[in-house]
Amino acid sequence: MKLGGRLRALWAYRGFVLGMVARDFRGRYLGSALGVVWAVLNPVAQILIYTLVFSQVMRARLPNVHDPLAYSLYLCAGLLTWNYFVEVLLRGQAVFLEQANMLKKVSFPRVTLPSYVFLSATVNFLIIWGLFLALLLLTGHWPGWVLVALVPVLVIQQMLAVGLGLVLGVTNVFFRDVAQAVGVGLQFWFWLTPIVYPLSTVPEAARDLIRWNPVYPLITSYQRIIVEHQWPVWSDLWPVVLVAVAVAVLSDTAFRYLADAMVDEL
Amino acid sequence: MTGAIAVSHLGKSYRRYARPWHRLGEWASGGRLVWHEGFWALRDVTFRVVSGESVGIVGLNGAGKSTLLKILTGTTQPTEGEIQIGGRVAALLELGTGFHGDFSGRQNVMIAGQLMGLPVRELAALMPEIEAFAEIGGYIDQPIRTYSTGMAVRLAFSVATASRPDVLILDETLSVGDLYFQHKCVRRIKEFQEAGTTILFVSHDPTAVKTLCQRALLLDGGRLIQDGPPDQVLDYYNALIAKREASWAILQSEAVGGRTTTRSGTFEARITEIDLLDANGRPARAFTVGEHGRIKARVQFTSPVVAPTAGILIRDRVGNDVFGTNSFYVAPIVDTYEAGDEMTVEFDVALNLGAGTYTLTVAVHSDATHLANNYDWWDKVIGFQIVPGPEPLFIGSAWLPVRLRVERHDKMVASGHRQVGERS
């Protein structure tokens, strides 16, 4: 099916997609006593640990910043968005296997499955991000108008994550090794992205490597907006846009050619 | 046309890879390398169903029924051939697909209904009827995991059949729930039938097919081998099952070495291999009446032999000759063979025999009979069975295709008294 046809099918099944998102949401928060608190506790624990280890134990400091909270904010800006990126990627990679039974038994637009997990991950991210912004406001770190710049950066990130998630999701059906490889790959990717450390603290040789990382300009933009209250460097973002577009085209092709074969493989 | 189905030369081949990375190799080569083995789950299936017709699909496991249904419902794409279906198709392949135990019956109905392509507004309107049909009362607002199996199935059936489709595909789902609910399901399906829904019904249950369907299709080995009234097709299906079972049992006992054969001859030519195959070339030891069998023998020569003769003989249970012939009469072998040469002979025989057990004898000799030079005579080498097929019942060891014509001759009536249909 062509892209246009798929979008039309997606619109026709919007009720199903939203229903699945709602189900996901309820499943995640309503089943447990503390509900949404768990969704927040997880990143909070991550941030506490990194703050403790890096800023207290290892005495890492952001250059030219003397605010005691600055490192935590820096960490939040990169980590929360990175977590969002990873969640989209991993859920996209797993969704076809998770819903194998549905795919085998019912004829419905397959594009609804990745759509619902991406939407669900987004809802999750917006909750956490909303709380984070509230925290900024309360602690007097509100960045002001530059926050608007988050929108295009998040859009680019989402395009990259959705594209990659879709490619991995489709190929994972044929080669289960993909899921394993992604787990390993993400570890490296995380530490090759300046999320818990500033780029200035790594040696020059490593910096050159990190500059090839397509996520690096995105994360840097969030950090600039949140910590320095500066607009992103737009010229750094263009290469990422190109990569994201290329990945999106690849995912569309993969989906078009392999979606049918995928069902036979499940 | 709404509800009509046209399937022509439909085929589905699944790819089998010996190693996962073989597929990767194929992808990398852009299709120039072929490292997979095609497996045809369905091949050259052609049939038409008119709107409102009810058709049963029967066949042994692995016959291709599920594959056909998957193609008809659109979950999988055919490898070759075409398929046309008019109108909305609903499939009850597996009840409760899309159900999630943590959510209430109502929430699950909404998801499952939308998965079938029903708009939210229509579903909301249908909800009271769905609830009523499922008869689960207040449980509709409880999580599904608290339901009994029967309740979940009732709800699933209720959603799946909430709005009348143009084509309904059923897969043995009728055999779930208690008797009362089964009857209710059958009633609903019959209502659909009467309202003009086309029904495709896959089942192992002959009675269900006979009660619901006007026509049946029999699939075997991925091919459509019978298409006709349910009675006729199901009889054939039963014979097929009986044949498979008998064949399997005999092959099993052969494997453990339970036969007594005698062998004699001068062995200038020696039979090294004998096999009895069905029309598809598979080893078989049971055939339906009139089915084609293939007797295959491999002969190795230890001395030079001019114009050998290969023969077969079929005997009945008590040892009477039923049929025997040899290459001298059928198609003479005129070649000269040297020591070390080999020859394969294949007899294709229509097994027009009555039901019962038979033995096969294979021999190689010179001239018309084995009396001159008997090289190798292998007595009762294979036992096989003939089971009744769809033909009318008969007795005896030969099947003679028979036709009957009956003319009725009423006793003479005086013409003058006959009432003539005239009106004044």
Distance between the ends of chain A: 20 Å
Largest interface: A-B, 25 and 29 residues
Helix content of chain B: 25-40%
Instruction: Describe the main β-sheet of chain B briefly.
Output: 6 strands, mixed
The coarse silhouette of chain A is globular
The percentage helix of chain A is: over 70%
CA radius of gyration of chain B: 30 Å
CATH topology of the largest domain in chain B: Rossmann fold
- Our Rg estimate of chain A from Cα atoms comes to 20 Å
Mean pLDDT of chain A: 86
| Overall tally of structural domains of chain A | 1
CATH superfamily of the largest domain in chain B: P-loop containing nucleotide triphosphate hydrolases
Proper CATH architecture of the largest domain in chain B: 3-Layer(aba) Sandwich
The termini of chain B sit apart by 48 Å
Oligomer: heterodimer
- Counting DSSP H or I runs of 4 or more residues, the number of helices of chain B is 9
Number of DSSP E strands of chain A: 0
Description:
The complex is a heterodimer of chains A (266) and B (424). With 266 residues, chain A is mainly alpha-helical. Chain A is built from 11 helices and no strands. Chain A starts with a helix and ends with a helix. Chain B starts with a strand and ends in a 37-residue tail after the last strand. With 424 residues, chain B is α/β, with parallel strands linked by helices. The C terminus of chain B is likely disordered. In chain B, the strands form 5 sheets. Chain B has a 6-stranded mixed β-sheet, with helices on both faces. In chain B, strands 10, 12, 15, 16, 19 and 20 form a 6-stranded mixed β-sheet that branches. Chains A and B meet through helix 2, helix 5 and helix 11 of A and helix 1 and helix 3 of B.
